Amino acid sequence: MAASLLSNLEGQAVLSVTTFPSSRFYSALHSQKPLTVSVRCQAKRGVMFKEDEVASADHLKYEAPLKIVEYPDPILRAKNKRIDTFDENLKKLVDEMFDVMYKTDGIGLSAPQVGINVQVMVFNPVGERGEGEEIVLVNPRVNKYSKKMVLFNEGCLSFPGIYADVEVVVPQFLALFCFVPV
User: What does this protein do (predicted)?
Assistant: First the structure.
């Protein structure tokens, strides 16, 4: 699946990740192997990463079903906490995020978009349950990217009904380190 994803999106962005075994979830206690897949991401130049505050178990508490947070809700700009505990609570959050993403016809969804300020994102380039590959990004970090930018049409679930051609926003090549499922 990763190879077909690479050929379909080749030249757009490179994601270097550590994988964990399971369909949608992973455990930091299991063995890890590198995987490269392609995704589109936004990056800022000259950003230095400080050690992020760690999320507590309370940060992963929510009431189902999750709902999309819309702009200008301040939670969308709040600092997100790093995930250190890979447990059943995180798995449930990820599963619920995929459900919301598919129900709202999205291809990606971050935890802040459902009101939870942690560094988690779910993604499926096809946007259909059972098709494509479900990817979970946890604690992602941009390591490098090209200066050449591309133009494409983009929308956001937190800005419903708004789509625009975005220019000089998405790097053509990007290295992002995070955790994803196998």
Answer: Removes the formyl group from the N-terminal Met of newly synthesized proteins.
Q: Where in the sequence is the domain holding 138, given as residue range(s)?
A: 2-181
Q: What is the C-alpha R_g of the chain?
A: 16
Residue 93 backbone phi and psi in degrees, to 5: -60, -45
Q: Is the pLDDT of residue 77 over 50?
A: yes
What CATH number is associated with residue 111?
3.90.45.10
Do residues 4 and 165 lie in contact, with contact meaning Cβ atoms separated by under 8 Å?
A: no
The model's pLDDT over 79-95, given as tens digits with 9 standing for 90+, comes to: 999 998 888 999 999 99
Strand 15-20: give its sheet, edge to edge.
Answer: 33-37, 15-20, 174-181, 135-145, 120-123, 108-110
* pLDDT tens per residue, range 121-174: 999 989 999 999 999 999 988 777 777 777 778 899 999 999 988 775 455 555
